[in-house]
Specification:
This protein has helices at about 5-25, 45-50, 250-255, 325-330, 345-365, 365-380, 380-410, 415-425, 435-455, 480-495, 500-515, 520-545; strands at about 80, 85-90, 95-105, 115-120, 125-135, 155, 165-170, 175-185, 190-200, 205-215, 235-240, 240-245, 255-260, 265-270, 270-280, 285-290, 295-300, 305, 310-325. It is α+β, with helices and mostly antiparallel strands and about 550 residues long. α1 crosses α9, α7 (about 380-410) crosses α9 (about 435-455) and α10 (about 480-495) packs parallel to α12 (about 520-545). The longest helix is centred in the C-terminal third of the chain and has 28 residues, at about 380-410. The model is unreliable at about 20-75 (pLDDT under 50).
Length: about 550
């Protein structure tokens, strides 16, 4: 950092940011109109206007109560779906996605031989995607408890093929046949989910589709650092209200009930997310629900359709199961890139990420990209930093005279302050001249912190030598030690604090920050090291020139 005042200012800014987020979490809740507190299905009035009856079965229910006995000839089993980037387990009971492994991402730096598990039906990390159809007649539509048939146990994207279609089929005795079709594309985490209704019965068919994310409150936090906060919970986006989070505590107290034309819902975690992205231009209803056992549902259902005999209808939507790749997801739906949460400094963080990504395309290494980005930011603030360093160099030059004034006036504060101000005026030095440049830079530093912390593009990205992952801590603590040493050098260049207690605190700071940064991702520490070294070079040059001007 530029100097110790910047370190303290950034630290205070971080604390203020955390206090603000805690206040928002505890006291700011989304307002839900009383009329929206009804059942996620029974509240829809457009079905009544169309004379389409609505099912009384809540798609959020995970109980087997009132679930019709259908498709008796089918047996429950799980099928495996493998593409070049995903490995999934899909249950024929409901066609739910029980597990999703990301083949291009390791579970962790320590477990590089294991693929990252995003979705799981294990109780310790429950995270699934359910979907289905509902109708006024339970036997006419398969919800997420109905059993489908499939032709294969394993579906795999073949070499040379760009698309994989996974069909599941459900039928009933009245002649209604429904296909649940997943479509995967090569290199894509975007999955198309389609329900096709073949009404071969003698009566009109009426119903709607729903899709929902089921997640347990995370209990396994062994891979998280105590020094780094990342958000895990729900989020949604509507064209009217834009991006909003809905964490588990909020879902405990208030049910989401929002109608939206466009938008999406998601369950977020560090680097990855699963999302529901409706493709229909019709109004969707977003809902949430808390289940027993610390389980939560975030889902959407669309308008009811009436399908006459002999007619085929369909319900289509998209799912995202994968990393927060910003360049890709911003093309999928408006606002989806906000799943990479840079907080209130997004307006600054997004251009910083764009520049960092641009540099990486040229150099091909995220570590060197961080170094070159740090240099560019340093050049952008060169003049502001120079003003701060000149102020400190002037104070350093006046230190002996200030000490003499202090000894002369002792405890006479009035005459002491007047003599010091006269000296500053005579020498044309502003003792707080370096504060404004520091304040201007704080938002940029915090925004860059979030860019380096939140961008999945840098997850497990190697740098060189012993740094094999910029998102993990330095295994040998070399960078934190270098950072601490650079802070000690900066301290020698700064004017000595007049108060002995302040001097002791300033002397302890490099050791405190070294211990703290030892557990930060190496990419963040690399930035601070490079920034400190550049600051030392600039500050030494300015101090040297000013101290030798009179000789």
């Amino acid at each position: 950092m530029d100097n110790f005042r910047l370190i303290l200012a950034v630290t205070l800014a971080f604390l203020a940011m955390l206090i603000w987020e805690a206040w928002q979490k505890d006291y700011v809740r989304p307002t839900v109109q009383p009329e929206q507190q009804t059942s996620a299905i029974a509240s829809v009035k457009d079905a009544e206007r169309r004379d389409v009856p609505v099912a009384s079965v809540d798609p959020g229910s995970t109980t087997t109560t009132n679930v019709p006995v259908i498709n008796k000839e089918a047996s429950e089993k799980q099928i495996e779906v493998i593409t070049d980037v995903l490995s999934l387990r899909i249950d024929t009971k409901g066609g739910s996605i029980l597990e999703a492994k990301l083949l291009d991402y390791a579970q962790s730096t320590e477990e590089k031989d294991k693929n990252y598990v995003l979705l799981s039906d294990q109780s310790t990390n429950l995270f699934m995607i359910q979907s289905g159809l509902i109708s006024n007649k339970k036997e006419d539509a398969p919800n997420h408890k109905a059993v489908y048939r499939t032709e294969k146990d394993v579906y795999e994207l073949k070499e040379g093929s760009d698309e994989l279609v996974v069909p599941l089929v459900w039928t009933n005795s009245s002649g209604v046949k429904i296909g649940k079709i997943y479509t995967f594309k090569r290199g894509e985490y975007l999955v198309t989910l389609k329900h096709k209704v073949f009404n071969e019965s003698a009566k009109p068919w009426a119903g709607r589709d729903y899709r929902q994310l089921v997640r347990g409150k995370p209990t396994d936090t062994s891979g998280e650092s105590a020094f780094i906060y990342t958000y895990t919970g729900g989020a949604y986006y509507t064209p009217e209200n834009k991006f909003d989070k809905l964490d588990f505590d909020e879902m405990d107290e208030t049910k989401l009930a929002v109608d939206a034309t466009g938008g999406w819902l998601a369950m977020l975690q560090h680097y990855f997310f699963a999302g529901i992205i409706p493709t229909s231009k019709d109004t969707q209803h977003f809902y949430s629900k808390k289940l027993s056992g610390e389980k939560y549902i975030l889902g959407a259902y669309g308008p009811a359709q009436k399908i006459d005999p002999g007619v085929t209808g369909e319900f289509t939507g998209n799912l995202w199961i994968g990393p927060k790749l910003q360049k890709r997801i911003e093309k999928v739906a408006p606002g989806l890139e906000l799943t990479t949460d840079y907080g209130w400094l997004t307006i600054i963080a997004k251009p910083i990420f764009w520049l960092l990504n641009f540099i990486n395309q040229a150099v091909g290494n995220w570590g060197w990209s961080i170094i070159f980005l740090t240099i560019l930011i340093k050049l952008a603030f060169y003049r502001l930093s120079a003003a701060s360093y000149r102020s400190m160099a002037g104070m350093r030059k006046l230190a002996p005279r200030l000490q003499a004034i202090k000894e002369k006036y002792g405890d006479d504060k009035e005459h002491l302050n007047k003599a010091m101000m006269d000296l500053y005026k005579t020498e044309k030095i502003n003792p707080v001249g370096g504060c404004l440049p520091i304040l201007v830079q704080i938002p940029v530093f915090i925004a860059l912190y979030w860019v380096l912390l939140e961008s999945v593009e840098m997850r497990d990205a190697p740098f060189m030598l012993w740094i094999d992952s910029l998102s993990a801590k330095d295994p040998y603590f070399v960078l934190p030690v270098i950072m601490g040493a650079s802070m000690l050098v900066q301290q020698k260049l700064n004017p000595a604090p007049p108060d002995p207690m302040q001097a002791k605190i300033m002397m302890a700071l490099p050791f405190i920050f070294t211990a703290m940064f030892a557990f930060f991702p190496a990419g963040l520490v690399l930035y601070w090291v490079v920034n400190n070294l550049l600051s030392i070079a600039q500050q030494w040059r300015i101090t040297y020139v000013m101290e030798h001007q009179g000789k």
